[in-house]
Specification:
Structural class of chain B: alpha+beta
Low-confidence stretches of chain A: 225-229
Strand content of chain B: 5-15%
Largest sheet of chain A: 6 strands, mixed
Strand content of chain A: 25-35%
Strand order of the largest sheet of chain A: 6-7-8-3-9-10
Bound molecules: adenosine-5'-triphosphate, magnesium ion
Oligomer: heterotetramer
Number of domains of chain B: 2
Strand order of the largest sheet of chain B: 2-3-1-4
Low-confidence stretches of chain B: 1-23, 289-293, 328-334
Shape of chain A: globular
Distance between the termini of chain B: 33 Å
Order of helices and strands of chain A: EEEHEEHEHHHEHEHEE
Number of helices of chain B: 11
Order of helices and strands of chain B: HHHEHEHHEHEHHHH
Radius of gyration of chain A: 17 Å
Number of strands of chain A: 10
């Protein structure tokens, strides 16, 4: 239901470094795709392009055919509400409880308080944090903070899920649970793109894998086949 | 994990891709959003009562000084007017002027525009005053009696009303000098001269002080509001990412600014009231000795409202400035 | 990876556990640390020139107002003294007093402590003045001539010097009244009364304003310094973790505070100078009309130094306060 | 050269949650030990105890026989200079370059500028960041930031290395490099304690493994044996 495309996207930073160089790819609506590559390969830069937090120096980033970097200040919020994003740093609001953090994307869409409560509780239990709703982020372990971020990304039932190393601070068991959560959303029609360096975890999922290296797309492994190491 | 089933629960059959529509109308949603921002702001302020109090105090003190200056200047103006009111001339009639001429002059003076009051001093009254001024009145009286006639002329003290300018005074003086029976017209200048100097001092002092105090008030209000909301500015990045509109992101800051600004205004009003109360007694006594009994003017409901409005404006402006300094609301987070 | 060999290089044979000792003495290390903190602070300030300028302006304006108040009060004191100097008495001799008695009195008055000047007015001069006051002097002169004797007494205007108080004046007045040949002693009270009122006004105004301005100055200085260094406070946690001593953690903040405080002091001096320059002319003219030509006092090197010191103190205190508000330097990071 | 001991350490937080419950353990001087456990098990809490950033509610934390929580404000900095710590969030100073961040622990010890430059360059090349010394942390990818943190922890050649998920954002290749760096320090006499959830990586190292679960030490696997999953 949401097709993601990059057309010859290059991102050159102020210091001349190229975060992405001439990347073209297309992700089908409703599919789940992994993005991997060594540290500094450009995974986060690519995900930020898709949410409009980075703009390409050249090339176009298309979602369902419309250019993300052309969205005006009126349209951008509406687009972002369709996207659930998990960033590498947790990005929780320090002076709100876990519950309120997860509720944020619902609050801005004016859902009724009852609906919000039901959904937030559902999302928190999905990441095994039902008993931590009343705590503040600083009272959580790093892995718990990461899971709050995941709950916040999916609470809105987004059409697109972009996750940047969502399992970096999670143990293998929780990592697999998060992956299965993403699979559920994918099955319901969401397009899911997950950046991760955890090759073993990725391989087990049997999804398409995109390999970045120094900003370039060097390998594109189709679903359900083994990755070359 | 425990949540797997619950996640399904939570979804209750809808497609996860169903676009969310606000329940109720746009207006209702707008009100709900404002309500949330307002309660968020009051929670934020009340959770930090001490530092909020400091912000109020700072904004309050910053507003107090221009407020007092304004009151001072409006009072100087009032005093100006009172002094101008007590400015005037004395018309000395010729000794040879007939009683008829003197009576005509009194009527004439009373008809003159700008004249507040005319006080007639007969030669007898003048002599009486002269004798009272001298310590050897008995001798002088004897002397007058010996001469057999009063050497002092009739005169009129002419008090002009508040609105008459120095120029009017001067013109009147020249006109009266030309009248038959008028010996001399003396303008009471001392107060006018002092007044001019004092006014100029106040004006210079005022414009210098005004500029500084206004700068100070604006800077202090901005800085303190900014400081108070600094910790909240980090939220903007997250809010932008999850799709909050610029208006939604601005809203809490407008409420913070309002809370701090209006609180500062209330504080300023309290400070000004205390201050005026303190100086009223000595000021009264000073002004009375200048023959100008006066109430402190300017502490009116309109003034109070203005202080509140200025405080509110500064608070909101400070919050907005902090917001836009932080890169605006629709800048992509990095 | 590429570094494996270099890591070995970097270790150049020492055990990695060798405890590091400062090269050179403790004092040298201390100086090096201060140098680093100072250059860090100047870099920090110069990289943010606009916001640093705002901080200086805020601290400067905050310091200007109490500074001006101080100057105003020290000038009012000077004016007080001048006015007391022009205060005095008039001694009216009896008409019957012999010329000898009058001459003695003049000598006596000149010898009196606290007397600045004695102006003798003979009966003839007094009559002359009286005649000048009147518009019908010819008549009056004829009258006097007819009486054949001058009804006015000799008198002395006694001007006291600056340091004499009202009490001295009163005592002198009573002493002189008791002298033979003295008819009356009149104290020139008007200025004294006004002065008392004005002083009281200034005192009340002063203490109210002083308190507010001082609070404002302290709050503004603290808040602006705090705001300026806010972003650096986050470093404390990291610095504590890697083993920086509390002194090392405090040091950059002391330099920030100094830079902002002293800069604010310089700004205040400039503002005060401009302000005094602006009001000097109208003030002079006002004071001259009060018969008290006067220089604006108080803008001395000592005053300037005091402003700088107060600015420096406030800046450093603000920085320290911000530091300790943030949980102190040796609180464990969490 | 530095023996780490916990004696019946319990840490109860303000909300009643127990981060650690009655943990006793002893780590020999010069050994390398891994700490594992699910998310929220108390790994970070334990490491913070050892650096004095958390204090035990009951029990004692001893380093070479002296109680860390008893160190005064004068002694604590000196103790911490002997410890290299990698935290889970990167903890870099935002307004200093990568170079200056790594140089921090040396600057506070008054080394000469030449020595500092040599050591910092060595440490940066160890984590493959020689060419990023002049950048600010916000211009680095998350994995690069994590490596800067590792460089800063070892630049001082610490007697004790405490690392909390040092490889959470690193790919398998870099993770192994970091582990081998820690091994080098261990061989030179440093005591190394690494918290990680990456079971596969840990197993390969052949070191002693401590298992935490809900704040309690539930398993202590000796060096060079397999861990039970
Ligand atoms: N200040 C605090 N107040 C309340 N609870 C806390 C606090 N700090 C930590 N906790 C709780 O203590 C438990 C242990 O936290 P800790 O950070 O040690 O876990 P961890 O093993 O490092 O987990 P992770 O692998 O996710 O980093 C967590 O459940 C956390 O919620
Ligand atoms: N604002 C910036 N200015 C300069 N260089 C940047 C900037 N942002 C990122 N880079 C560089 O671009 C490259 C790609 O960064 P990116 O964050 O996309 O990597 P990544 O694949 O997410 O790495 P990791 O796995 O470590 O998170 C890195 O080398 C980084 O140093
Ligand atoms: Mg990344
Ligand atoms: Mg942890």
């Amino acid at each position: 239901m949401a097709r993601l495309q990059l057309q010859h996207v290059t991102r050159r930073f102020d210091n001349g470094q190229e975060g992405l160089s001439d990347v073209s790819l297309s992700i089908e609506s409703g599919s789940m795709v992994f993005l991997t590559g060594h540290s500094g390969a450009g995974k986060s830069t690519l995900l930020k392009m898709l949410i409009g937090a980075e703009t390409p120096t050249t090339g176009r980033v298309l979602v369902d055919g419309s250019d993300v970097s052309q969205l005006g200040p009126k349209q951008m919020p509406w687009y972002r509400r369709q996207v659930g994003i998990v960033l590498q740093d947790h990005n929780l609001l320090e002076n709100r409880t876990v519950y309120d953090n997860v509720a944020l994307p619902l609050r801005i869409t004016h859902l009724s308080a009852k609906d919000i409560a039901r959904r937030v509780r559902g999302a928190l239990s999905t990441v095994d944090l039902s008993d931590k709703g009343g705590l503040f982020p600083k009272h959580l372990s790093t892995g718990e903070q990461q899971r709050v971020g995941i709950a916040r990304a999916v609470v809105n039932r987004p059409r697109i899920i972009l996750a940047d190393e969502p399992t970096g601070n999670l143990d293998p068991y929780l990592s697999r649970q998060v992956m299965s959560l993403f699979h559920q959303f994918c099955d319901l029609g969401s397009t899911v793109l997950v950046a991760s360096h955890d090759i073993d975890l990725i391989k087990d999922q049997g999804c398409r894998i995109l390999h970045l290296s120094q900003g370039a797309l060097v390998q594109d492994t189709a679903a359900s086949s083994e990755v070359a190491t | 994990m425990a949540g797997d089933t619950k996640a399904e629960d939570g979804r209750d059959g809808e497609s996860p891709l169903a676009v969310e529509r606000p329940k109720g109308g746009r207006l209702q949603a707008w009100f709900a959003d404002h309500g949330r921002a307002a309660s968020d702001a009051s929670l934020f302020v009340s959770q930090r009562l001490i530092s909020s109090f400091l912000v109020w105090l700072m904004v309050g003190v910053a507003l107090t000084l221009p407020g007092l200056l304004w009151i001072a200047q409006s009072n100087v103006q009032a005093i100006n007017q009172q002094w101008q009111g007590s400015a005037g001339l004395t018309v000395y009639m010729k000794l040879a002027a007939s009683q008829q001429l003197i009576d005509d002059m009194e009527i004439r003076l009373n008809r003159e525009t700008g004249v507040e009051r005319v006080i007639r001093t007969t030669p007898d009254q003048a002599l009486q005053e002269l004798l009272e001024q001298s310590d050897e009145s008995a001798f002088l009286r004897d002397a007058m009696a010996a001469v057999g006639s009063n050497p002092l002329p009739a005169s009129f003290a002419v008090v002009l009303n508040d609105s008459s300018s120095y120029l009017q005074l001067d013109a009147l003086s020249r006109k009266l000098s030309a009248q038959t029976g008028v010996d001399d017209v003396v303008i009471e200048m001392t107060w006018l001269e002092r007044l001019r100097d004092l006014s100029e001092l106040f004006n210079r002092l005022g414009s210098g002080l005004s500029i500084m105090l206004l700068i100070a008030a604006v800077l202090v209000a901005f800085a303190s509001v900014r400081l108070a909301i600094e910790s909240r500015l980090g939220e903007l990045r997250v809010l932008a990412l999850i799709g909050a509109t610029p208006a939604q992101m601005r809203r809490p800051f407008l409420y913070f600014g309002s809370a701090y600004g209006i609180g500062g205004g209330v504080m300023a009003i309290m400070l000004i009231a205390v201050f005026l109360n303190q100086i009223e007694a000595p000021l009264q006594s000073l002004l009375v000795s200048y023959r100008a009994g006066i109430e402190i003017a300017g502490f009116t409901p309109g003034f109070l409202l203005a202080i509140l409005l200025v405080g509110w404006f500064l608070g909101v402006a400070g919050a907005m400035l902090a917001l836009f300094q932080r890169g605006g609301t629709d800048k992509p987070p990095s």
